């Protein structure tokens, strides 16, 4: 069972991929953040996780004195990137991956807070690669959960490290202003054009039928969009009223995330000319 996954244990998922689970389980991280080690004789480390001594020690054990060619970051949330700095100092590997962000307004960030000290040595753009002995990782721009989110494809085994864009347990929080629902949906459409065999997400189990899951996620978001439009056709409403009707029985710890996702939908609908904001209320056009 996923709830019984051990933290700090290096688990081989396939010959080129090892997973180490960080001990930071929460309502937003599920069983914790998963760090992936790619390679055999030399390594890339994807999302080294939070600044946690026990997790760092587990990664050092899993690395086992092998050279680390790159520390790759999918996005700048503090359950994914802070451990990179200590690991880079000890291994000499460059911090590589998503661009740093200047946060204009954190708002009610419902998921993990920003890693404001994230400063990569190299920023990867869509299609750029890093490689080692027998492995290649290609950056795939997948904005939406965050504006700078990257996934990493491993063409040698047709796998994709999907970060928080596609997770193995729930849909991502899309929280404005950094999160953008239009970008998120476009990134899901982008994944549908690919033929990846398996996804290794930042949280939750590996996704063995990724195309089916992505289609389901797109359908889920379009269903939420339809709910919002139906509610606003009844009467102008504030976000809180819509959340109360759309998420009946939701764990109270997740109401903030639900509110941010509804807001993200509203902002996307407003850009498309379907709704408008009037003070604290939203109404359909």
TrEMBL record:
SUPFAM superfamilies: Metallo-hydrolase/oxidoreductase. It comes from the Bacteria. Signal peptide: none annotated. It holds the Pfam family WHD_BLACT. Residues 32-203 form the Metallo-beta-lactamase domain. This is Glyoxylase-like metal-dependent hydrolase (Beta-lactamase superfamily II). It comes from Sphingomonas endophytica.
């Amino acid at each position: 069972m996923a709830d019984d996954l051990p933290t700090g244990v290096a688990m081989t998922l396939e010959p080129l991929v090892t997973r180490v689970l960080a001990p930071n389980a929460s309502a937003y991280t599920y069983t914790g953040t998963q760090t992936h080690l790619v390679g055999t004789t030399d390594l890339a480390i994807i999302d080294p996780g939070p600044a946690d001594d026990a997790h760092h020690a587990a990664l050092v054990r899993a690395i086992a004195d092998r050279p680390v060619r790159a520390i790759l970051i999918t996005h700048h949330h503090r359950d994914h990137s802070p451990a990179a700095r200590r690991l880079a100092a000890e291994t000499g590997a460059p911090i590589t991956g998503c661009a740093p962000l200047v946060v204009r307004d954190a708002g009610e960030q419902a998921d993990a807070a920003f890693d404001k000290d994230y400063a990569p040595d190299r920023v990867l753009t869509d299609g750029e690669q890093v490689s080692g002995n027998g492995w290649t990782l290609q950056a795939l721009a997948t904005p939406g959960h965050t504006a700078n989110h990257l996934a990493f494809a491993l063409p040698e085994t047709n796998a994709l490290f999907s970060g928080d864009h596609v997770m193995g347990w729930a849909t991502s929080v899309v929280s404005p202003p950094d999160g953008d629902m239009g970008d998120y949906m476009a990134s899901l459409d982008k994944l549908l054009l690919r033929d990846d065999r398996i996804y290794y997400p930042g949280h939750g189990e590996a996704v063995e039928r990724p195309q089916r899951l992505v289609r389901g996620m797109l359908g889920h978001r379009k269903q939420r969009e339809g709910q919002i439009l139906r509610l606003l056709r009844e009467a102008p409403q504030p976000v809180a009223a819509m959340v109360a009707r759309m998420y009946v029985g939701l764990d109270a710890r997740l109401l903030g995330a639900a509110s941010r996702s509804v807001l993200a939908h509203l902002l996307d609908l407003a850009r498309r000319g379907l709704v408008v904001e009037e003070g604290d209320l939203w109404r359909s056009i």
